[in-house]
Design brief:
Elements: E1 7-9, E2 15-17, E3 19-22, H1 31-44, E4 48-50, H2 58-70, E5 80-84, H3 93-107, E6 112-117, H4 145-157, E7 161-167, H5 171-178, E8 189-193, H6 201-209, E9 213-217, H7 240-249, H8 253-263, E10 267-270, H9 275-281, H10 291-298
């Protein structure tokens, strides 16, 4: 069984594959790897590709997708491609469509399947992803996210994206969108950090109650990016509970962590540059965790974030001060 047979219906009628391939890179020299790994992912059965303008590798990921279309491996309609608003510097309504059009040019695609507001904190518009003043402080912007959402709705109406959603929003920020006068389209999803150490159970319940899908990034913990992860933070896949469970099911700790999310009704993203691991991650559909083991995994929650985004905590829309 592969991910092509495993989809979840979204509130706008479109469907999203429950297992996605993440493409986040932090260094320039890894862009070529992201192209090669995306090709491998499509070859082994991934049909959901998650990327972002912020990752600065949409051109390479787009080349990978187009090459797999050209060689007959897939058709465009077989691929579910997620992109995200040009980080937080394009929240102003007049910048939303140009941001999406910029991504489409890099991808050489006519549309994306899902477009997300990447992060609720607004930053000064410009070509610098994280603008700072002469003292090194992040330069914020003040934007009504409801106006940003209206511009997202117009992108959907224009056919530039089939679905629209949010990322890194807390409940209060999601309610702001849901309660917006004249709301035309609900967010189809909220993509957030989610793993056994941060299981987002309350946010997940809220999303389910409102027919919104929770999409998990960082589902395998972290690759310990130096800019945001302390060397002393725990390595999720070294957790003894995960390791013991992996032996029980004759799987890897990574597969246990991915399977955990699927059985909770969460769409889960997995990223790797290793062909062996990319192939391995597709095996997540080949086993099932017992309910008692799901409860044990729920018990690992520590409300611990690998990606705290603390540099943005001075903005009123910083999402992580709320309980969920």
């Amino acid at each position: 069984m592969n991910s092509k047979a495993q989809k979840m219906k979204m509130n706008d009628g479109h469907s999203i594959p429950v297992l996605g391939f993440g493409t986040y890179v932090t260094e320039e020299h890894l862009k070529k790897k992201s192209m090669d790994s995306t090709k491998i992912a499509i070859d082994v059965g991934f049909r959901h590709i998650d990327c972002s303008y912020f990752y600065q590798n949409e051109e390479e990921v787009g080349q990978a997708i187009r090459s797999k279309i050209e060689d007959g491996t897939v058709k465009r309609e077989d691929i579910f491609y997620t992109s995200k608003l040009l980080w937080s510097t394009s929240h102003r309504p007049e910048l939303v469509r140009p941001s999406l059009e910029s991504s489409l040019r890099k991808l050489n695609l006519d549309y994306v399947d899902l477009y997300l507001i990447h992060f609720p904190v607004s930053l000064k518009p410009g070509n610098i992803n994280i603008p700072r003043d002469e003292h090194g402080n992040v330069i914020f912007d003040t934007v009504d996210l409801c106006a940003t959402w209206e511009a997202m709705e117009k992108c959907k109406d224009a056919g530039l994206t089939k679905s629209i959603g949010v990322s890194n929003f807390n409940r209060r920020q999601m309610e702001m969108i849901l309660n917006k006068p004249g709301l035309k389209y609900k967010p189809v999803c909220n993509q957030v950090e989610c793993h056994p150490y941060l299981n987002q159970s309350k946010l997940l319940d809220y999303c389910k109650m409102n027919d919104i899908i929770l999409v998990a990034f960082g589902a395998l913990g972290t690759q310990r990016y130096k800019y945001c992860v302390d060397e002393d933070t725990p390595v999720l896949l070294d957790d003894p509970v995960l390791r013991t469970m992996a032996k029980k099911y004759k799987q890897t700790p990574a597969l246990i962590a991915l399977r955990y999310q699927l059985q909770r009704g969460v769409v889960v993203l997995a990223k790797s540059f290793s062909e062996e691991r990319i192939r391995e991650n597709m095996q997540v559909f080949g086993f099932h965790l017992a309910s008692d083991d799901m409860k044990i995994l729920n018990g690992l929650n520590k409300n611990f974030r690998y990606f705290p985004a603390s540099m943005f905590n001075g903005h009123p829309n910083f999402p992580f001060f709320d309980e969920y």
